[in-house]
Amino acid sequence: HIGPHAWVGRAVGMCFQRTAMEALKPLALHPELQICNIDLFGGVTRNSLRAYYRICSEASDLLVTTSSFAEWKKGGNTNGSAKVIPAVPAGTLNNEGQAVRVFFFDDNINLTLGERSGAHDSKGICNLRDITTGSYVDFSAGRNGFVCDSAYRHTLIHYSSDYQNVLVQANILDAMSNPDYFTGIINKYARGGEKLVVYMDINGTILWNDSIMEMGPAEILLGTMFGFTEIRPRRPFDMNWGAQPTVKVEKTQVLKQLLTNVAKGDNQLVHEFWKRDKFADLMAQVGSNAELAWVGKETTFSAKDFFNVYQGYMEELHKQERAQGKDACGVTVSWFKCVSKMRQGRNAIVINTFGMDSHKVVIRSCRDARRVTHIAVNYDNWSERDLQKFAAQFHNEVLPPPAPRCMFTSCADLDISDCKRGGERCGDSGTDALGSWIGPKEPEHIFEFVVRKPTLDTELGAKVNHIEQGLRVAQIFQKGPIHDVNADNRAADPPKDALRVGDIIQQVNKIEGDTKAMVEECRRQSKLTFVVVRPTTSTNPGSLCGGPADPFEEEVVLPQKPRKSTTT
């Protein structure tokens, strides 16, 4: 006999204590899928939070949480009523004696709001809750050990010394342009031996359309760009839009926030701004009264420049659509790489969304969607519209048959594209969308590169990206020890290997596997020996299609200082 909660434990692949199991209430919405409800906003919040955290932290594959839009709306779209994310105090270990590090990627965390971005009553999407007390954890910079950082071009990060949490205001433009986007950020903050739990939003983070809001790629793109575009008034001016009350604009603010102020809670009007004709009218009015700039950047630009960047991103998006084919259905390649990375390490990845596209993503991200548990938060309080759309998504797409299991124990360490059985791709990939994009390639060349610094505080003169394979060289400056060694190596007879853009540094002296430690070694030692891998292809590392990936100058994940590039 199988108890009423056994299907959840079997689907997730773990054995829960009774308290964790009782927090989940099965929902009979599909005969083959595991769907349940959990109460995270009722009178037993702390116990439910602990149960939810344990379910997620003991998982070793994919889970789905559909958060309560009704609760968020009732709370005024503030952090304190948004997506519940467990906050793990520093030093906390799980039952296996491991530290658990929690990542949360979402495009609406609103870290651009400044010093109160993580407050309970601030507009936002992250309801960070201490797993020991159930109380809200303010993640504003300077509170609870949180500090600012940045990655790639437009991604902001808050991470903490008091909590084992990393919060990422994700940017789908960065995720679209960089196949190692998610894994690179995870690789920077994760520590050896930790269990990782990665909470991942869908719409505007890994998927460039939104079925519930009826938004296509163009609208998602504009909405994203509005989120990291600042308006800097030349002088105070009045913003007028149709019959809406006039809004006085006196100080620098994010364009998306201005539109929210103009809309006065009318979300439909906000989304109208993302239409091409409305967008042109908006930029004409704003551009005539204010300078435009990217958040965190000093250089300003015109409305025409903004449109040119938008066009560049749209072209890149269409390239990816053509390259991936219909199987990917608008999901970024960086997501599939992240799923593979987490699965290889038996870590947990938890889709956490307000939208109704989760089933579509699950089908394309795992071997058998039947083994993925869907957890709905406070399902009983949802609107009738959300209830209908949630149930409908499970019937809109036919479940594919499970992919055949691999003849090997695991395909985790193999190139998925090469692991086949009977003509079918096997293992945990299960889909063409996942399998065709992931898998290590044989390097063309491996060599040692030795460089000496005249003093310990001398910068090496290179810019690097933190990726899962190591440190990828993004730029080499015209002055510095690396440039000097390159010149000497090229002049040698016979010529020796010179470090190039695109090379991957896999080891620094005796240190490998931890890119942050590798960067620190570069700072601490004067003599450095790199083990370098030169990949087979030398295409633009930010592009999947061989063309320019991004009209912005590349920025990379930082080891220390916020919102600058990592320079070694």
Element layout with pairings:
Layout: H1 6-12, H2 18-22, E1 25-26, E2 34-38, H3 45-57, E3 62-66, H4 69-74, E4 83-87, E5 100-106, E6 126-130, E7 146-151, E8 155-160, E9 165-169, H5 172-177, H6 181-189, E10 195-200, H7 217-227, E11 229-233, E12 237-239, E13 247-249, E14 253-254, H8 255-263, H9 267-272, H10 276-287, E15 290-294, E16 300-301, H11 303-324, H12 333-344, E17 348-353, H13 358-363, E18 373-377, H14 384-396, E19 420-421, E20 424-425, H15 432-435, E21 445-452, E22 462-467, E23 470-476, H16 481-491, E24 504-508, E25 511-512, H17 515-524, E26 527-534
Parallel strand pairs: 2-18, 3-17, 3-18, 4-6, 5-9, 5-10, 10-17
Antiparallel strand pairs: 1-2, 7-8, 8-9, 11-14, 11-15, 12-13, 15-16, 19-20, 21-26, 22-23, 23-24, 24-25, 24-26
